[in-house]
């Protein structure tokens, strides 16, 4: 007599088999790297294996955009059990041009003929209509993770109505895409962020090649809702981004947790100011991750860092400031920068995290001026924020835990050292905060 295991048991057995095939140390939370040949074979073993094997087969998909994406939509519409299984979807460029080729693809002087024809000739395997994207997403009732990777996002067709409400996702990742809403005839620019309500939005390096954000009035940008913007529980962004710029111009989404990475140019700081002004009013947690080289963009007399003003963040409860110190220049005064950012935080702040890291191992001689700079700011924080519950100092690449902790303690009043408010954490380089 054949033994028929419950669906859930068979599912977990097959899933564990995939983990063993990949190696336990391989992180594949969204199922994008499974051996699909093995799973396809397992689905043919018997009827009781078919559905759990197919669920694992379709749980995470990575597809190239292009003409066959329409066929994929037809497949989903005709195969509901496969559509129901998809939890994670990654749409990526069908080609992998290098950086120079990518720039030339959109250079008006390089290619001749009408603009739309040039774009089709140079980037046909990267073009994605947002209407097709939303049609695909609309057939996936259990989709949680969506990743758009190096595609060209076109405009919304004028003959198509907008979705009635935003799609809910656990995570949306927009990575190095190109925004070209005006090149295809019969389409209009759109605020793609208004189409989604997400738990985590990771947005990196997306570019507006032809300046649609500058040339199109905000009132002409299509969005699902102008009265009740969708919510983004957590936003992580890395420098300037065209999709965020479009969302800011049209009417910012509601963001609870902001993680802003500031790299090595002053324009990033200017953009961070806009993000804080528009998203900060609803944010309860803000994390600023600052590259030390960005300071070199500002003359000594400049007040550039005052642009990172937190006055608009009236609901702010937790502020985390990650700072990469330039240990090759240990005499640099970081105090004014710290004062400009933290000094503008509302007095209702309840948690302050300061993380100091360095590109090289910190010696005792190098850490001493850092401690001298940091200690008086801890005292000021205790005074400035009467509701403060935690001041957490995290140091990476440190020479010795006890010496580091003792050096900070020696510079602080005993009342603060003995208070449960102050916490000092030593962590290895690369460890998450």
Describe this structure in words.
This protein is α/β, with parallel strands linked by helices and 433 residues long. It has 15 helices and 18 strands. The strands form 3 sheets. Strands 1-2-4-7-10-12-13-14-15-16-17-18 form a 12-stranded parallel β-sheet. Helix 2 packs antiparallel against helix 3 (47-59), helix 12 runs parallel beside helix 13 and helix 13 (364-384) crosses helix 14. Mean pLDDT is 80; it is low at 22-28, 97-106 and 108-112.
Can you describe this structure in just a few lines?
With 433 residues, the chain is an alpha/beta fold. The chain is built from 15 helices and 18 strands. Strand 15, helix 12 and strand 16 form a beta-alpha-beta unit.
Write the layout of secondary structure elements.
Elements lengths: L6 H16 L13 H7 L4 H13 E5 L3 H11 L1 H6 L2 E5 L6 H7 L9 H9 L3 E2 L1 H9 L6 E5 L2 E2 L2 E2 L9 E9 L2 E2 L7 E2 L7 E9 L2 E2 L3 H4 L15 E8 L3 H9 L3 E9 L3 H14 L5 E6 L27 E7 L10 H8 L8 E7 L6 H21 L5 E7 L4 H10 L3 H4 L4 E6 L6
Parallel strand pairs: 1-2, 2-4, 3-5, 4-7, 5-8, 7-10, 8-11, 10-12, 12-13, 13-14, 14-15, 15-16, 16-17, 17-18
Antiparallel strand pairs: 6-9
Helix pairs in contact: 1-3, 2-3, 12-13, 13-14
